[in-house]
Amino acid sequence: MLLTVAVIGAPHGLRGEVRLNVRTDDPGRRLAVGQVLETEPSDAGPLTVSRFRAQGGSTYVHFEEARDRGGAEALRGVRLVVESDEDEDEGDDEGWYPHELVGMRVRHVDGRELGTVAELEHFPAQDVLLVTEPDGAQARVPFVAELVPEVDVDAGVITVDPPRGLFAADPGEEDDEAGDDGPATSPSGDRPASGA
Questions:
Q1: What is the Cα–Cα distance from 34 to 32, expressed in whole angstroms?
Q2: Does residue 78 contact residue 71 with C-beta atoms inside 8 Å?
Q3: What is the pLDDT of residue 26?
Q4: pLDDT digits over 55-101, tens only?
Q5: 51, 175, 187, 194, 195 from 191: Cα distances, Å
Q6: pLDDT value for 134
Q7: Contact assessment for residue 135 and residue 168, using Cβ atoms and an 8 Å cutoff
Q8: What gap in Å lies between CA 9 and CA 47, rounded to an integer?
Q9: Model pLDDT, residue 117
Q10: Is 29 in a helix, a strand, or coil?
């Protein structure tokens, strides 16, 4: 099985550097200069790391095969992958593999059950949890630390702290205001006439 080391994001500058959405706890080893990485889709690679740097919480690399902005732009969204048997201890460090998230329960930080994970969708900027709610509605939660503070594989629970309105079961403030303070309506659903 292939495991994702990183997803290539937007170009950075004009000389082929790209920003990576890193999925490994050891980017210094996995993305070291000279490393050759397979890709998904496979026809985008393999790619050879020619320069690596981490700055301000972000990771940037150059690949020998992409020497300008156009070449870097063509790689946006490509996943850098390794065979799982090459990276057995990586999953232990991270605590989970992406495929293990499917089927896990999704719980709000306040304890409410919100649904189950149907899929982990991969986008250039970030991954997104596709969550099926109990009523069948689907919500997409950006898989970032601010919104997904905890993934507990042993318990089978992902804890989320979504903004109001992201889930059907967690309406936005506008919906609350309309329900609490909205004008009264007649049994037929019509608003009463103003003034008499």
A1: 6
A2: no
A3: 72
A4: 777 888 899 998 888 888 889 889 888 876 544 444 444 456 677 78
A5: 66, 18, 9, 9, 12
A6: 92
A7: yes
A8: 15
A9: 92
A10: helix
Q: Looking at residue 106, what is its pLDDT? A: 94
Say how many residues make up the chain: 196
Helices (H) and strands (E) in the chain, counts: 4, 12
> Which residues are CB-neighbours of 178 under 8 A, at least 6 positions away?
none
Contact between 141 and 147 under an 8 Å Cβ cutoff? The reply is yes
Task: Residue 83: count other Cβ atoms within 10 Å of its Cβ.
Answer: 11
Region of residue 32 (left: phi > 0; alpha: psi -120 to 50; beta: else): beta
Cα radius of gyration (the chain)? 22
Of residues 166, 181, 155, 92, the one with CA closest to residue 133:
166
Q: 41 preceded by cis ω (within 30°)?
A: yes
Low-confidence ranges of the chain (pLDDT < 70): 1, 84-97, 124-125, 171-196
Phi then psi dihedrals of residue 105, to 5 deg:
-75, 145
- Contact indicator for 39, 45 with CB cutoff of 8 Å: yes
